[in-house]
Amino acid sequence: MRLLEALISALLVAGLYATMSYGLALIYGVMKIINLANAGSMMLGAFTTFVLWQSFGLDPILSVLIVAPLFFAVGSVIEVALVRRVSGSPPIVSLLLLFGLWLVMQSLAYLVFGGDTRGIVTPYVQSVIHLGAIAISTTRFLVFVAGIIVLVALELFLRRTFLGRAIRALAQDREACSLVGIDPRRVAMIAFGLGTALAALAGSLLTLIFSFDPDFGRVLQLKSFTIIVLGGLESIVGVAAASFLLAAAENLTVTLSKPALENLVSFVVLVVVLVVMPGGLASVLRRRRLS
Amino acid sequence: MSRSFVSMAFVGLFIASACGGSGGGGAAATSTGAAATSTGAAATSAATAGVPDTMKIGYVLPLSGADAKSGKFIEDAYKLYTKQVMDAGGLQVGGKKVKIELKGEDNKSDAATSGNLYEKLITQDKVDLLLGGYNTTLVTQEVKVANRYKMPYVNGGGASASIYKDNTWAFGVLAPIEALAQTELDFIKTQQDANKLPKPLTMAVVYENTSHGKEFSQGLQDGAKAAPDRFKVLFNEPFDLNGKDFSALLGRVKDVNADAFMADAHLPDYITMQRQYTQLGLYHKFITYGARGPDKSAKDQLGAATDYITSAVWFDQQQPGAAVKKWLDTWKTTGDDPEWYAAAGWETVRILYAAIQKAGTIDKQKVRDTLASNSWGDSIFPGGTIKFDKSGQATNVYVMTQNLPGGKTILIWPKEEATGDPVMPTPKK
Amino acid sequence: MNPIRAFARLPRATRIWIQTGIVLALGVALAAIPIVAPEEFNLQRLAFFVLWYAILASAWNIVGGYAGQISFGHSAFLGMGAYTTGIFWYTLGWDPLLTLPIAGLVAAAYSVLVGAPTLRLRGPYFAIATIGVGEATRLLAVNFDDVFGVELTHGVTGLSLPAYDPVLVHYATVGLFVVTMLTTIGIRAGRFGLGLFAINMDRDAAETVGVPTARLQIIALAVSAFFAGMAGTLYAARQEFLDPSTMFSFSISIALVLMPVVGGVGTVWGPVFGALLYAYVQDQITSLVNNPYVPSLLYGLILVAIVLFEPLGVAGVIDRVSGRARRLLRGGAAGGDVVA
Q1: Which of B179, B279, C116, C239 is most buried (CB neighbours < 10 A)?
Q2: H-helix or E-strand containing C159?
Q3: Is B1's CB within 8 Å of C315's CB?
């Protein structure tokens, strides 16, 4: 019974992590850029939801309908105005650029909202769903479900629609894209916009569970890096799997040894994976399939 | 080489601004005050000769970042009390009324920044005396600076005994955290004698990974060691601050099946943890979150999940007595809640000014000695008097509160100050 | 005769000697402060922080600027050095300044431990890995406060250290600053630096011409960590209090990236400019503007601007401006780049 409880809680946490990481994974997969501003987008998404909730009483889940398109636009603008200019430079340049952008986002949030921790209280924030003897927090369950919906929607988009396949094509071979009539610049803009929208969406959903301030997202972002590196690059499903692995590893650490080391797990995993299998799980599996 | 010329220019600019601070920093007429250099040279003690027209009091608080809320309470207290004094014409020091100029800085809840800003207040702004900051780690660093420059420093923000080790110049109105744990154990003893709580009481302890938390845990462990027939610690684990998910930790707490859940956490973690505690369906006969419990924002966000939680604090607005009532009326004008941070800030500034008045001078050594050797009555803290022990820390008792359904909070300890009967053990749903 | 033009015409060796001279002169001038102006505590305070940042920024520059491996976790080495000194001082009573070299060596050893596997990674991966290392080191310091019953780092309580003469710390700081600057000048002028630049520009090509890339990178990181660790000692001696969340903080790591990049990554004096600018802004502008977040907004905007327009930061801007001035003075002939 305890094992089942632990499994379910790991699953719920995994859903959370995965939702946070899709945006990062998409941008990285397509543009080979590590978007350090991801945490900033997530945080601004959360604050946007907060403002909507405070002014109109809009439920965070519904606010996603506003936040996602809004940040898609924001992301597209960022790509065209900033990221595109450094696309020829070594990857470290875009890293620094996006880092600077994150600082700007954070500072603006501090200036506008101050450093106070904010929370959103919805009527169902305390309620619990009972599965037999096990109790699951409603909000975490909702976020989990939302994460699955996003996963399925993303996979369908990437595999079934022309735009989605164009994005995957760009991830595989940029030059070949122009040869088959895909405009890489437009697709890059859309990919970045989509990635930003996903991050902001995650931020909105997470307001149901966590309180937040302008520094929100920093520690979570590091876990996202671990997840996308662990999950491999071209695979959204890989992100989901890696999220679960990380969540399980953290849960095990807390259960079997010192709870204070919970965050250490993700960092150790990050460094180990980077050094030992830079292609992530997906590459290991691919190798096995080929051999 | 052009770059070297420019770097020379930079250096020059820097030196100019650095010296500019000492030249005539600020409009305050500190010409006589400037005679008291930061090494604490003795000033004359003749009635009005050594006393300036205006004195500068400096403080650095976390006004942004993690501890901004608490910092703001303390700053409001400093400002309000100073305003009261100024409205009466100034502070009576020696033979004359002295104006007070407050200079405050924001340390963004960072210890290194805080130490540096206090140094800046001393060396560049040339403040005469210091009001303290908030949060044990920051205060520890600040106390080092105060001791190095031999500046009296009074604070209501650091409670850990480790702050006052090797200390001569700093004073704190908050009693040590180990006493917090001890107070709760004393209360539990009375409940055990009345057969309301089991004997021995098994405890699951979780504490934030800070010196605050460590001392809380240590206090409980010492208590258990001293009275093993009364208390047993079954589980004792620290957790990282600002955690996002405590479900695994709470799962372990559940497994241990203890009678009591003793946690020590700051506000954001208290809220996150208690929410998950309720959602996971945990139950304990006695629940405490250290000094947290009746905090308004927790009640707002958690509602009924805060029912029956006990806490031990340095001050609660329900304490009886005229001094407390008077303060509550005064504090109403700010529109803030009368939380203990505000009370601590108030006592801090009140005592510093009282000490200056009593010493009749702003001479640092004399003010320091006055602080160390006197008792300060008319206090809103439990007991009505604050006296600093040898290390500079106050020794007042704690009051304990318990949240009741409907958003009420009552005082349950000490017996003389109690406003209601505690509900022990926690009623089962 | 135009002094800039004259300087540009000097042979490289002489330019290096002049720079060395400037560093030594600066050192003497700064060391004289406590003697000449013993009551100017504010100046001494600012001098400490500027020099301290300059040491750290220059140290970072060796691996981040010269070798091109951007490290977002350098506070790990700073903290290692600081705690080494702190522990020896606290438990054994050793004079902190005497533990300077030990602290440096411990930090360097730690850097080899984490660097050996991670330096193989390319650009952004290494950067991400360093974030992980920095945070992991912090968590270890916070949680391993006692090892087998011997109180080591005291975890979050922090190490409360005895009082120490700040004037001695001042001299030590000036000394370390001089040594760090001379080292960076020396590296840039020598074959080691040449190798690092080659790796920075194109690692594979460097390998092809026989540059031992792995070894050079590890040495660069070790030297960088060595100086960063010693800077930690100075901090411990001056502030008399260490706590893990401050010493190993991510914000210090960020500052260590900002300073050299804004000042001019890969140049000798760039990190010093960056340190000056950063310390000045942090100290003076913050209280002026009365809002602690304006500086970070400025840094973010400056960083973005630098990345987009002038990768060599302030030093690059100066170069461009002085280049234009030179061309004006010479009347049209193309001006060369005065590379130190």
Answers
A1: C239
A2: strand C159-160
A3: no
Q: With contacts defined as CB-CB under 8 Å, which chain C residues touch A218?
A: 250
> Quick check: B136 and B160 in contact, CB under 8 A?
yes
Q: Would you write out chain A's pLDDT as a tens digit for each of its 291 residues?
A: 677 777 888 888 888 888 889 988 888 888 888 888 999 999 999 999 999 999 998 888 899 999 999 999 999 999 999 988 888 777 778 888 898 999 899 989 988 987 777 888 787 777 777 777 777 888 888 888 988 898 899 888 888 888 888 888 887 777 788 888 788 888 889 999 999 999 999 999 988 888 788 888 777 888 888 888 888 766 788 888 889 989 988 888 888 877 777 888 888 888 888 878 766 666 666 666 665
B282 contacts: CB under 8 Å, gap ≥ 6: B250, B253, B254, B261
Structure tokens at C252: 């210090």
Instruction: Give the integer Cα–Cα distance in Å for B264 and B257.
Output: 19
Q: Which residues of B touch A (CB under 8 A)?
A: 64-66, 68-69, 108-109, 206, 209, 237-240, 242-245, 247-249, 251-252, 255, 267-268, 271-272, 275-276, 278-281, 297, 300-305
Structure confidence at residue B42 (pLDDT): 37
User: What is the share, in percent, of chain C residues with pLDDT greater than 70?
Assistant: 84
pLDDT at C266 over 70: yes
- Residue C35 — left, alpha, or beta (φ > 0 → left; ψ -120 to 50 → alpha)? alpha
Backbone angles phi, psi at C278, to 5 degrees: -60, -50
What confidence category does residue B229 fall into, taking pLDDT thresholds of 50, 70 and 90? very high
B3 contact residues in C (CB cutoff 8 A): 267, 269, 273, 315, 318-319, 340
Length of chain C: 340
Q: Measured between CB atoms, does B196 come within 8 Å of chain C?
A: no
Residue B340 CB-density burial (10 A; 0-12 exposed, 13-18 middle, 19+ buried): buried
Q: Residue A96 to residues A83, A263, B258, C308: CA-CA distances in angstroms?
A: 11, 25, 50, 10
Residues of A in Cβ contact (< 8 Å) with C254: 103
Q: From CA C253, how far away is CA C249, in angstroms rounded?
A: 7
Contact flag B248-A254 (C-beta cutoff 8 Å): yes
Distance of residue A235 Cα from the nearest chain C Cα, in angstroms? 18
User: Taking CB atoms and an 8 Å cutoff, what residues of chain A touch B65?
Assistant: 115
CB B353 within 8 A of CB B81: yes
How far away is chain A from the Cα of C37, in angstroms, using its nearest Cα? Answer: 38
pTM, 2 dp: 0.85
Interface probe for C, chosen from B1, B59, B150 (most Cβ of C below 10 Å), is B1
Supply φ then ψ for residue B149, to 5 degrees: -95, 5
The CA distance from C220 to C131, in Å, is 18
Among C124, C139, C299, beta carbon nearest to A34:
C124
Residues of chain B with Cβ-Cβ distance to A262 below 8 Å are 240, 243, 248
Please enumerate in sequence order all residues whose Cβ is within 8 A of that of C85, keeping only pairs 6 or more positions apart, or say none.
C96, C99, C100, C102, C103, C232, C233, C236, C237
